[in-house]
Amino acid sequence: MSIATDVMGQVTVVDGKESSDLFDQIARQNMGITGAQFLVRWDSGEFDGVDWDDVPGLTEVAMALPFAR
Fold it and tell me: What pTM was estimated for this model as a whole?
């Protein structure tokens, strides 16, 4: 179970499926890839040592990782 907040600051408790769907949505909106694709790239070390400012959306998706795991 995870906790999400919307743009108005409303807190919502989400279950595993909702959490995974939210992560997928964040990855698609910020990097144009699925959440699953991001996780493969993240786990392979693709983003290790890169300047996160040089990869559009990386910070936003990486911050959302708790929703995926």
Answer: 0.82
- The Cα–Cα gap between 38 and 26 comes to 10
* CA distance linking residue 52 with residue 54, whole number of Å: 5
Report the C-alpha gap between 37 and 30 in whole angstroms. 13
CA distance 24 to 38: 9
Q: Tell me: the pLDDT tens digits for 21-46?
A: 999 999 999 999 999 999 999 999 99
Q: Would you give the distance in Å from CA 57 to the centre of its chain?
A: 9
d(CA 1, CA 7): 20
Q: CB-based burial of residue 45 (10 Å sphere; 0-12 exposed, 13-18 middle, 19+ buried)?
A: exposed
